């Protein structure tokens, strides 16, 4: 979805949550391990994640919003540095040298909106600054299309594997935007989120991959 003023405040809250979880992962190895043990589990089963996440939940969150908080916290704990917005040591070095980092989706009238998972998947297609091979475009397309067809349970079962691969490649992930998108993964909204992921993927591919 396009981030509007109304959701800007929500994204600010999500940014603070992401920053908090990143600090927890850096300063408290035990709590970081506890977050990792919650990976892929619904909130009812992710008992080791409550201590980090519970205080951040809104009152009476929807099932999608609650699970989004738990999932994002657990996935942040997987990354090497626990940094904000998915930055790893490789990404920090890239920023210092001025080389390309994650592309942002562009649309007429909104040229610099925040990057979605689709944008990150596009970057993985041509990521070359890691020891592992980049994801082929066909593979990335299949994984993304499969994700976008899932219900709430299915997307949370399949997403950790995709994110782990992106992290291995050093691809930055906008965790706050991902939290926002997962929080709206409802029967009435998920098609809009899925459309944005797919559109961002194809918009963000390098020019030679689009031809």
Write a short abstract of this structure.
By secondary structure, the chain is mainly alpha-helical.
Tags for this model:
single chain; 211 residues; mainly alpha; Peroxidase, domain 1; 59% helix; globular; disordered N terminus; CRISPR-assoc_prot_Cse2; Cse2_sf; Type I-E CRISPR-associated protein Cse2/CasB
Structure write-up:
This protein has 211 residues and is mainly α. It is 59% helix and 0% strand. The protein has one domain: CRISPR-associated protein Cse2 (Peroxidase, domain 1), CATH 1.10.520. The chain is built from eleven helices and no strands. α1 (5-27) crosses α2 (29-37), α2 (29-37) packs across α4 and α6 (117-125) runs parallel beside α10. Residues 80-114 are annotated as: Disordered.
State the share of residues found in helices, binned by percent.
Answer: 55-70%
Silhouette: globular
CATH topology: Peroxidase, domain 1
Considering the protein shown, what is the CATH homologous superfamily? CRISPR-associated protein Cse2
